[in-house]
From TrEMBL:
Protein name (Swiss-Prot/TrEMBL): D-malate dehydrogenase [decarboxylating]
UniProt GO molecular function: tartrate dehydrogenase activity
Superkingdom to which the source organism belongs: Bacteria
PROSITE patterns, alphabetized: IDH_IMDH
Length: 355
């Protein structure tokens, strides 16, 4: 039975503009590929928080558990502090639904000019596998003496053997499915952080279990430079929560724009639904103007369909996106075009239907 129950959470800002665009493309593909999606929309957002005092209801996570997937726009708006909105909605979903693998593809698509001189689609095609539930994003820490000269903030990073091993295993398994079978580890074991020598040990141990894989590792500082100077070196990059967060905004910058980058928060065991969302945020600077790039949300929808087993429909979306890049009128401003959110969505829908 190819009927999928999907929870949609548009959220804030351009989330409310790009999520409907992605849904429209999915709807357009249903009949042709023979699947069906039943959407349930949740209006959890900063706006809702200002009305109710909660980013989501107390049983919010429980409400999401029985869906096949979750499709989310963006969370965060200037009227609510980020540590209230994100800690109250996005981060608990990732954590409580054990979506520990954040898979962020970085691919220079046909029709996009990389800001890196002389680089084409062959040179930029890799995946950041980001640990998504622990590491630097731990709840252990606190603040003392607020507002005084003795004020301080403490944050503990938590790296468990189970959590570290399972993200590395995910990266090695993913690499097996790709051309070069290569895994790069993002580390920082030269800085005074107890977590990183441990990270390196677990990486070496996991590498020994995948003798056919090629491996290397770089400290995060020089790794950012290599992303810019040698993007062709990478195939799968495994990183802790914070390092992966930073790398996954840098990656899309070399592949054209944060406005096209997809992200999948995967629960690999399938015990809970996975969540699909663009890498970008709510973009308050352009929200409400109808100019947000819908490609990140649309590519994210393709990732979701692929995960649900609809790989032909997913492939069809990617080809249609590439076709839309051939014309400035169907590219948004962040890519140097003149198109609106609507123009781009309409073009991709038409190309999907024609393919
Ligand atoms: P952002 O991604 O919202 O915006 C960064 C810049 O990129 C802005 O100039 C914006 O206009 C541009 N941009 C982003 N997406 C675009 C698109 N689709 N088309 C064209 N341009 C686009 O990051 P930020 O400004 O750091 O964060 C804004 C808010 O969003 C904050 O509250 C932040 O916490 C939140 N945020 C949420 C998520 C999420 O929900 N997954 C991710 C990142 C940031
Ligand atoms: C992302 C975002 C989030 C993160 C924020 C909004 C909490 O930057 O999805 O990359 O840091 O994970
Ligand atoms: Mn981020």
């Amino acid at each position: 039975n190819r009927t999928y129950k999907i929870a949609s959470i548009p959220g804030d800002g351009i989330g409310k503009e790009v999520l409907p665009a992605g849904q429209e493309i999915v709807q357009a593909l249903q009949d042709r590929f023979g699947f069906k999606v039943e959407w349930t929309e949740f209006d959890w957002s900063c706006e809702k928080y200002l009305e109710t005092g909660q980013m989501m209801p107390s049983d919010g996570i429980a409400q999401l558990k029985d869906f096949d997937s979750i499709y989310l726009g963006a969370v965060g708006w200037p009227t609510v502090p980020d540590h209230v909105s994100l800690w109250g909605l996005l981060l608990p979903i990732r954590r409580e639904l054990h979506q520990y693998a954040n898979v962020r593809r970085i691919r220079l698509l046909d029709g996009i000019q990389s800001p890196l001189a002389g680089r084409g689609p062959k040179d930029i095609d890799f995946v950041v596998v980001r640990e998504n539930v622990e590491g630097e994003y731990s709840e252990i820490g606190g603040r003392l003496n607020r507002g005084t000269e003795d004020e301080l903030a403490v944050q503990e990073a938590v790296f468990t053997r189970k959590g570290t091993d399972r993200i590395m295993r995910y990266a090695f398994e993913l690499a097996k499915t790709r051309k070069r079978n290569k895994v790069t580890s993002a580390t920082k074991s030269n800085g005074i952080m107890h977590s990183m020598p441990f990270w390196d040990e677990r990486f070496a141990e996991m590498a020994s279990r995948y003798p056919e894989a090629e491996t290397d590792q770089f400290h995060i500082d020089i790794l950012t430079a290599h992303f810019v100077l040698h993007p062709d070196w990478f195939e799968v990059v495994v990183a802790s929560n914070l390092f992966g967060d930073i790398l996954s905004d840098l990656g899309p910058a070399i592949a054209g724009s944060i406005g096209i980058a997809p992200s999948a928060n995967i629960n690999p065991e399938g015990e809970f639904p996975s969540m699909f969302e663009p890498v970008h945020g709510s973009a308050p600077d352009i929200a409400g103007k109808g100019v947000a790039n819908p490609v990140a949300a649309i590519w994210t929808a393709a990732e979701m369909l692929d995960h649900l087993g609809e790989s032909e429909a997913a492939q069809c979306i990617i080809s249609a996106i590439e076709k839309s890049f051939r014309d400035d009128a169907t590219k948004t401003r962040d890519l140097g075009g003149t198109g609106s959110t609507r123009d781009v969505t309409q073009a991709i829908k038409t190309f999907c239907a024609d393919a």
